[in-house]
């Protein structure tokens, strides 16, 4: 049981479809009509300059991430499976609370993820929804010791980060891997980036 009870650490969330789609990128490519579990190896996506692929639970590549290390901070460049750029994720320098900023190729801000003072780990992601222009604030609450978290919009589940892979046949646990289950109609690239931010905040706390 995590710091916030028995939610993400014990059972899968009830992830209902989002309509209109929820995300930062135009078009439906990363907002698929069924729940999707992303498989993300923890060691791969630290801000270390490493490149890696993000796959789903069927071992199909979903997107790619390239690490770049600079003298004034680290960046992660997200691309689709063909190498076309999506956005770059960087840490904000001199921020009071740990803050990540995602920008497109023209350096326009797409979303921010900010750590808040709270019991356990709390982070807030803010952006303008690409499908309808609505201002969105997603809240992540998690157990940094166990590596699990829930992402919600006004209390409605959007995604679930867990060390456990739930399916119809078995329960698989891997302490070096995040299994990120995303609701239908939610931008997979956005949630993958939020998971990386969560891991950075968790490792900083540890």
Can you describe what's shown?
The protein is mainly beta. It contains one helix and 14 strands. The strands form two sheets. A twelve-stranded antiparallel β-barrel has the order 1-2-3-4-5-6-7-8-9-10-11-14. The protein has a two-stranded antiparallel sheet with strand order 12-13. Strand 2 and strand 3 (61-70) form a beta hairpin. It is globular. The model is unreliable at 1-10 (pLDDT under 50).
Q: What is the percentage of strand-forming residues? A: 35-45%
What structural category do the secondary elements indicate? mainly beta
Order of helices and strands: EEEEEEEEEEEEEEH
Topology, number of strands: 14
What's the main sheet like?
Answer: 12 strands, antiparallel, barrel
Total count of helical runs of at least 4 residues: 1
Oligomer: single chain
Contiguous low-pLDDT stretches (5 residues minimum) are 1-10
Query: What sort of overall outline do the alpha carbons produce when their principal axes are compared?
Result: globular
**Roughly how many Å is the radius of gyration?**
16 Å
Helical content (DSSP H or I, runs of 4+): under 10%
Termini separation: 18 Å
Mean pLDDT: 81
Spatial order of the strands in the main sheet? 1-2-3-4-5-6-7-8-9-10-11-14
